[in-house]
């Protein structure tokens, strides 16, 4: 049965659809300028309500500068416009700077229409020593001047800064950020401008950092030596696509004093070169607090990784092994019984053993799974059927298996008895016959909350085929991507 909308959602929808009757039309476009607003400015709304209204206005195509002026008020401490980024112009940023001077949390991720001068004016207008969290990811026009203006007003208050994919930033901008010595978290992935000098300055001066993301930067890994004496306090470290060395890895993760005092909870080594040889992944054994680990596309043997997982796996909840090579899903499940999210796209799965699929030591590793990505995975039909029977978690919400040769009977097993499934991606699964697809859609139709992507499945040649399936299973969102 489809879920019943919350009363608050109905109220917001009603407000959006009747906005002109409630707050009055734009008097600048009215012949009768004597019209008076019914409610006027919404200066008492909590930021969550403002965010919800902006999202709904955007969905109904009613969002404009006038609405921003009405909703963005002086008491807002959180402004998050990342979900409506394409509507955020220099004019909207001007409204934020003039009306919302007491912001603590600002999220302008993906707002590409803002020029560098508007960023400078925005930060100049905000209250000094007040801003704590700033997300400017993918703001293509953000320049060094914007970061200098930010540092000028938030050097003693800024705790979190995300500037990944901001390619107009170079060392000059990072030098400014190094003045923000209260920073606990910084993300500067995939930036082309910074050099080792700028990154080292930030890491050296911002000594309270516990979350650091440096993925795909063009830097010498030796800049990480400034973290050696603080590595046991780090909680999150993203070094994806960097070229490391055994000495750096040992200095960061192998305690010279013995013991396992590392607090690291998230580690991303995906695509890293220069990791220790296969027989020497001992550094992972020290990271007993790890919850999320990314080892995608690294050149190691499964045996060496499995050895490490036996030491740390029981604490892991998220694992990424995309394009790792050959893996053994039974050993993986055995080593990580608390896994809730697994991504193993493009992997080759070793042949399953003859153990009964009811073996609790194996099936336990899958009964908490919420999200799994096995797109482009290669496995035998036996593996598919064993894996489908082991994936017993009724909490499973996302099943990504595009471009695989999943047998029809395995698909039915995968999706049966999974009331919480929200997304099933079957793109280019041309081994699944129409009867199995119909059986799967029929089982999902009762929950009324699942999206199934069926592009290029067997018998699904075009959008018209999707429309026909949608009529047959109205409670499933069937889509073509």
Distance between the termini: 26 Å
Radius of gyration: 26 Å
Categorize the overall geometry.
flat
**In which range does the helix fraction lie?**
25-40%
Average pLDDT, all residues: 86
Identify low-pLDDT runs.
27-39
Number of helices: 17
Q: Order of strands side by side in the largest beta sheet?
A: 1-2-3-4-5-6-7-8-9-10-12-14-15-16-17-18
Strand content: 5-15%
List the helices and strands and how they pair.
Elements: H1 7-17, H2 19-23, H3 47-59, H4 65-71, E1 78-80, H5 90-99, E2 105-107, H6 116-125, E3 133-135, H7 144-154, E4 160-162, H8 171-177, E5 185-187, H9 196-205, E6 211-213, E7 236-238, H10 246-253, E8 266-268, E9 292-294, H11 302-312, E10 318-320, E11 326-327, H12 329-335, E12 341-343, E13 348-349, H13 360-363, E14 371-373, H14 381-390, E15 398-400, H15 408-415, E16 423-425, H16 434-445, E17 451-453, H17 463-472, E18 477-479
Parallel strand pairs: 1-2, 2-3, 3-4, 4-5, 5-6, 6-7, 7-8, 8-9, 9-10, 10-12, 11-13, 12-14, 14-15, 15-16, 16-17, 17-18
Helix pairs in contact: 1-3, 5-6, 6-7, 7-8, 8-9, 14-15, 15-16
């Amino acid at each position: 049965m489809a879920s019943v909308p919350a009363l608050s959602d109905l109220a917001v929808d009603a407000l959006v659809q009747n906005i002109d009757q409630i707050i009055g039309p734009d008097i600048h476009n009215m012949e009768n300028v004597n019209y008076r607003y019914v409610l006027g400015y919404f200066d008492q709304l909590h930021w969550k309500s403002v965010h919800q209204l902006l999202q709904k206005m955007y969905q109904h195509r009613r969002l404009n500068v006038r609405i921003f002026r009405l909703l963005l008020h002086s008491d807002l401490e959180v402004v998050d416009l990342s979900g409506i980024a394409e509507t955020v112009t220099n004019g909207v940023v001007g409204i934020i700077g003039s009306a919302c001077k007491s912001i603590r949390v600002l999220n302008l991720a993906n707002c590409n229409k803002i020029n560098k001068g508007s960023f400078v004016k925005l930060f100049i207008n905000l209250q000094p020593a007040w801003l704590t969290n700033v997300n400017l990811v993918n703001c293509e026009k953000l320049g060094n001047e914007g970061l200098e203006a930010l540092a000028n007003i938030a050097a003693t208050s800024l705790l979190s800064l995300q500037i990944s994919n901001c390619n107009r930033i170079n060392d000059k901008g990072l030098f400014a950020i190094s003045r923000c010595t209260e920073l606990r978290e910084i993300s500067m992935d995939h930036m082309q401008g910074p050099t080792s000098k700028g990154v080292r300055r930030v890491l050296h001066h911002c000594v309270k950092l516990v979350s650091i993301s440096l993925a795909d930067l063009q830097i010498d890994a030796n800049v990480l030596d400034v973290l050696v004496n603080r590595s046991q306090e780090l909680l999150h470290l993203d070094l994806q696509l960097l070229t490391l060395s055994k000495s750096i890895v040992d200095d960061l993760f192998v305690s010279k004093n013995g013991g396992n005092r590392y607090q690291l909870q998230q580690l991303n080594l995906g695509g890293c070169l220069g990791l220790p040889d296969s027989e020497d992944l001992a550094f992972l054994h020290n990271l007993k607090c790890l919850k999320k680990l990314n080892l995608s596309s690294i050149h190691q043997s499964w045996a060496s990784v499995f050895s490490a997982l036996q030491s740390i796996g029981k604490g892991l909840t998220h694992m990424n092994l995309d394009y790792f090579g050959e893996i053994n899903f039974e050993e993986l499940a055995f080593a990580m019984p608390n896994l809730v999210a697994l991504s193993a796209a493009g992997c080759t799965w070793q042949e399953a053993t003859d153990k009964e699929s009811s073996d609790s030591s194996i099936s336990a590793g899958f009964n908490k799974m919420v999200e799994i990505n096995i797109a482009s995975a290669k496995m035998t039909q036996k593996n598919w059927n064993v894996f489908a029977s082991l994936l017993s978690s009724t909490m499973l919400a996302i099943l990504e298996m595009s471009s695989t040769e999943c047998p029809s009977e395995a698909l039915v097993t995968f999706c049966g008895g999974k009331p919480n499934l929200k997304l099933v991606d079957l793109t280019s699964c041309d081994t699944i016959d129409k009867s199995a697809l119909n059986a799967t859609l029929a089982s999902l139709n009762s929950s009324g909350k699942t999206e199934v992507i069926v592009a290029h499945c067997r018998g699904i040649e075009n959008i018209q085929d999707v429309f026909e399936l949608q009529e047959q299973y109205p409670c499933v969102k069937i889509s073509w991507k």
